[in-house]
Amino acid sequence: MLFFLPGLIFGQKFPDLAPTPPMGWNSWNTFKINISENLIKEIADAFVKDGYKDAGYKYIIIDDCWSLKQRDEAGNLVPDPAKFPGGMKALADYVHTRGLKIGIYSCAGTRTCGDYPGSKGFESLDAKLFASWGIDYLKYDWCNTTGLDAEKAYTTMRDALFAAGRPVVFGICDWGDNQPWLWGKKTGQLWRISGDIAPCFDCVIDHGSYKDWGVMKVVYVRKDIRKYAGPDGWNDFDMMEVGNGMTVSENRTHFTLWCMLASALIMGNDVRSADPATVGILTNKDMISVNQDTLGIQAFKYKDIDSTEVWVKPMKNKEWAVCFLNRKKEPVSLEFNWTEHKISDPDFDFKVDFSKEKFRLFNIWTGKKAGTTGNVVKAQIAGHDVLVFRLSN
Ligand code: GLA
């Protein structure tokens, strides 16, 4: 009988769970070990009250350190009762009642990165437990995995989730160590491409055995992988650090890049107490619509003009998003004559010759029409800031 149910035998990923990059919030960047049921409920309330849900954010993801340090006698993971006294099912219900989805974290190794029990050898049990709670998203980490083959280990969990029967977005988090872009699309909906992000524009924080990376470092850590990203399989540039201490310009640039690069948009700040500038950035619908464009093409860097980088994202209906990014701390004057530029996508079949084709310009961050590509752009861009246009025909 089973021979006629190949899905059950070989497994597969749940299809079509992430036609556009997943949007949500994750506890790790701000809260680390200090997570609780109350925090998650308050984040869910803020999603509804402060416009995040309306802007498209959906998943609330509990990262590492949510369980007890040991499994129970039956082998099950146990939510730490001091942090989650009502248990995960009730918490998931709370989140679902608000029209949102809930995510959790585990690890392919014996222990998580924070030294809690990992899922190795317990994949099926854990997947069933998560399904019984109503979990919608699993971030699956890669600590304590000596001797494991990444593709196999992630496939084991993929199959366990599928067999458990509840659709779960599966986030691969091996930091890009095992080239997940080559196999991730059949395994999960997104894969991290770098070590952990840090709340700084271009720094590296060296912890000895590992490093954390500033925004621009994450952007540049890989080359030639945009061709692997697309609907239902995204390069994940990590949880965002918008609102975690950078300047407003840097926050805007960070968010713009994650949108241009079709990354998952997972907020990592305390959204309950975010200042108006941060909320404005994170909920800018025009910028988000670039990220959520259904063609799902990741931007590429077209050119450097002195310290200004020009990033370009082909979009549906022959539209484009074009971002001028000032890498310097000092302001820069930009003069850009569209008609001198022909742009062609290095990986996909998109081309534009601005001397032959004219587009209307919409300035995404001012929210205003900005003439056409028949005019020369003359602008000052503040240090570490961006000027972003949506081009339509
Ligand atoms: C790894 C991941 C982080 C976070 C921590 C939790 O470092 O890359 O995003 O989940 O583990 O311990």
Structure characterization notes:
By secondary structure, this protein is an alpha/beta fold. The chain has 2 domains: 23-291, Alpha-Beta Barrel (TIM Barrel); 300-392, Immunoglobulin-like (Sandwich). Helix content is 25%, strand content 23%. It contains 12 helices and 20 strands. The chain has helices at 6-10, 28-31, 37-49, 52-55, 87-97, 123-133, 150-164, 180-183, 215-220, 248-260, 276-282, 285-291, and strands at residues 23-26, 59-61, 101-107, 137-141, 169-172, 190-192, 204-206, 211-213, 234-236, 265-267, 300-305, 308-314, 320-326, 332-337, 342-344, 351-353, 360-363, 368-372, 376-381, 386-392. Strands 9-6-5-4-3-2-1-10 form an 8-stranded parallel β-sheet. The protein has a 6-stranded antiparallel β-sheet with strand order 11-12-13-20-17-18, covered by helices on one side. Strands 7-8 form a two-stranded antiparallel sheet. Helix 6 (123-133) crosses helix 7 (150-164) and helix 10 (248-260) runs parallel beside helix 11. The longest helix has 15 residues, at 150-164. The radius of gyration is 21 Å and the shape is globular. The structure holds alpha-D-galactopyranose (GLA). Residues 28, 63-64, 112-114, 141, 173, 196 line the site of alpha-D-galactopyranose.
